[in-house]
Amino acid sequence: MCGIVGYIGDRKAYPILMKGLYRLEYRGYDSAGIALVNDNGNLSVYKAKGKVSALEATVQDKDISGTVGIAHTRWATHGEPNVVNAHPHYSKSRNLALVHNGIIENFKILRSQLEKNDFHCISETDTEVLVQFIEYMQDIHKCSLFKAVQLALKNVTGAYAIAVIDKQNPDQMVVARKGSPLVIGVGKSENGNPEFIVGSDATPIVEFTQEVIYLNDEEIAYLDRSGKIDIITLSNVKQTPQVQQISIDINELEKGGYPHFMLKEIYEQPDAILNCIRGRLDTENKDVFLSGVIDNKNVFKNARRIIICACGTSWHSALIAKYFIEELCKIPVEVEYASEFRYRNPVVFPEDVVIAVSQSGETADTLAAIQLAKSKGAFLYGICNVIGSSIPRATDSGTYLHVGPEIGVASTKAFTGQVITLMMLGLSIAKVKKTITDEKLHFLVGELINIPDKMRWTLEHNKSIPEFAQMFTYARNCIFLGRGYNYPVALEGALKLKEISYIHAEGYPAAEMKHGPIALIDEEMPVFFIAPKHGMYDKVISNIQEIKSRNGRIVSIVTEGDTVVGNISDRIFSIPDTLDCFVPLLSVLPLQLLSYYVACAKGRNVDQPRNLAKSVTVE
Ligand code: G6P
Question: For residue 522, how far is its CA from the centre of ligand 1 (angstroms)?
Fold first, then answer.
């Protein structure tokens, strides 16, 4: 939540910062701002309520010169989204400007301390307190900005990634992080001069350099226009900068001809899944190799229990994994909402394996949940998409999804990537625990490698969804029902619809209908059934009949060629046949398309739905 970007070098900072903000807009989009030390030495701060485009319009006639600057796109926590509360914030003297992602929990205490010393904040934000406090430290200690940031942060409780610039020292920028992500790109301009591009993730950076430094928690970095970089910790230990190479294809950050990132990401799934399984599933010998499990064979062999912590869509993929891993590995799997787990004093044994599933690798609750599990001695395993993000760095081992950057706020390819990665994990654990025969392993892998083609078929054979979605826009409520492996798909279908179309939707295990939701059924209520010819097929048919006899409108996802469900449904969408456990990888696709086209038909901002953010770095 909130994206920050910074630049110092010999190029014009404004276009680099603005492009960076567009790339980071998925992290928050209720207001945006930019601060530049202009060529004439002024420190200009421009802000706008709304999206980055609103900021761009605001600065049309302003001085946007300067080769050092910082910028921010906000998802409000403290204070409503307006211009005053937007970042960057000035210090009292207006010499400093700061952007921040995170929450300063003790900001009220710091604020009253500042007020006693004649430093007054004009916004309602926790962030402004920080920039005032840094200047207050400069005043009383007569020290450098670098030192003042360190002294100020020692007084702070909470999470932050910050970037600060100083009008009086335009050749430097100071950045720091604790609990919120921060990446420093180390590059060279066209003139061969050093430059630094700072971002909440690598997306504003990759266009300029592939060399990055991931700042660790409680580290503060001094970046100098001459290319000098110093890193110290809060407790004053000097760190050696570790430069790493990243590779993100710049085309993956563009819409590539699609109207929205979400649609692009839905259609990317067959290829994304191929990338995900590459090198992990042996297509010739029908085997699985997950280095995270191979390297920690004994941990998995002796694990007493698996606990999976996640939020949102990632929680749904974890629920599918529970069914799969329990069935295959004969080991209990608990799936926890990270936000509940972290605060309820859970029982965790040192022999437990705790798995964090997170697209962004930055979700604050998931990160805190695994830190708690770590303190109780559990082995931590991360399943994340964003390389170098906080969760992979906090876990003992893990597997990246490799599905490419996901920009649309509603998760699609990361979901299917998580499901297939968790299935590869299940197969690998079953191998080390010897709970699977070679024949069964070959059989399951043999079908898993067909999934990308079957996904392609599903996307190509459901071309009537856009037209169907038009008819659907009247709906005020919807119910999604499934059983077994498709119960989590029902939850995911409902979440997708509500988050981007704002239609109220609920997902339920189909048999639970009778315990309440059935009271809602009338001729106006669309009910979606995930009813493949597998699992509890006959029982799902009975559940459909129960709805039909109460005049509900029934839309079903069925196995290709199925006529039984077709005869009792108002509309069907088909998927190819596969094994029961792999159906979610296909059955979710029509539901993703449906929510996308309903949202478009209702004129919603699909990639940036209201109030949501892709990376939830606050609890
Ligand atoms: C937000 C996003 C969801 C995502 C959830 C968990 O709510 O909008 O798409 O599923 O966070 O995020 P994570 O990055 O941990 O998977």
Answer: 33
The residue-averaged pLDDT of 16-24 equals 95
What is the SS3 assignment for 399? Answer: strand
Least confident of 20-29, 35-44, 173-182: 20-29
The finding on whether 389 has its CB within 6 A of some atom of ligand 1 is no
Nearest Cα to 370, choosing from 352, 387, 360, 29?
352
> What pLDDT band is residue 492 in, cutting at 50, 70 and 90?
very high
pLDDT digits (tens, 9 = 90+) for 417-453: 999 999 999 999 999 999 999 999 999 999 999 999 9
Under the banding of pLDDT at 50, 70 and 90, the label for residue 40 is very high
CA of 151 to the centre of ligand 1 (A): 34
Catalytic residue numbers, as ranges = 2, 614
Per-residue b or e along 158-186, where b marks 16 or more CB atoms closer than 10 Å to that residue's CB: bbbbbbbbbbebbebbbbbbbbbbbbbbb
Taking only the tens place, the pLDDT of each residue in 127-160 is: 899 999 999 999 999 999 999 999 999 999 988 9
Which atom of ligand 1 is least distant from the CA of 391? 15
Domains for the chain: give ranges and CATH numbers. Answer: 3-248 (3.60.20.10), 261-460 (3.40.50.10490), 465-601 (3.40.50.10490)
Number of C-beta neighbours around residue 105 at 10 A: 13
The fraction of the chain above a pLDDT of 90, given in percent, is: 79
Q: Which two tokens stand for residue 95?
A: 């010499």
Using one digit for the tens of pLDDT, what is the confidence trace for 70-110?
999 988 777 788 888 899 999 999 999 999 998 888 999 99
* CA 366 to ligand 1: nearest atom: 15
Average pLDDT, the chain: 93
612 Cα nearest atom in ligand 1: 8
Q: What is the pLDDT of residue 222?
A: 98
pLDDT at 189 over 90: yes
Amino acid at 513: M
CB 19 within 8 A of CB 41: no
* 3-class secondary-structure state, position 103: strand
Give me the sign of the Cα torsion angle 75, 80, 86, 89: negative
10: three-class secondary structure by DSSP: coil
Contact 508, 481 (CB under 8 A): yes
Question: What are the phi and psi torsion angles at 615 (to 5°)?
Answer: -115, 110
Candidates 485, 477, 543, 539; CA nearest to 515 is 543
Q: Is the CB of 312 under 6 A from ligand 1?
A: yes
Beta bridge partners of residue 208, listed in sequence order? none
Calpha distance 587→579 (Å, rounded)? 12
Q: In which band, very low, low, confident or very high, does the pLDDT at 286 lie, cut at 50, 70 and 90?
A: very high
Task: Report whether residue 612 contacts ligand 1, using a CB cutoff of 6 Å.
Answer: yes
Ligand 1, pocket-test mutation among 316, 411, 495, 605, most atoms within 8 A of CB: 411
Cβ(592) – ligand 1 distance below 6 Å? no
Residue ID of nearest Cα to ligand 1 atom 15: 358
Does the CB atom of residue 366 touch ligand 1 within 6 A?
yes
- Tokens for 100? 């921040």
- Residue 137, burial from CB neighbour count under 10 angstroms (0-12, 13-18, 19+): buried
Q: Are 558 and 574 in contact (CB under 8 A)?
A: yes
Residue 339 beta carbon below 6 angstroms from any ligand 1 atom: no
Strands 211-214 and 244-245: antiparallel
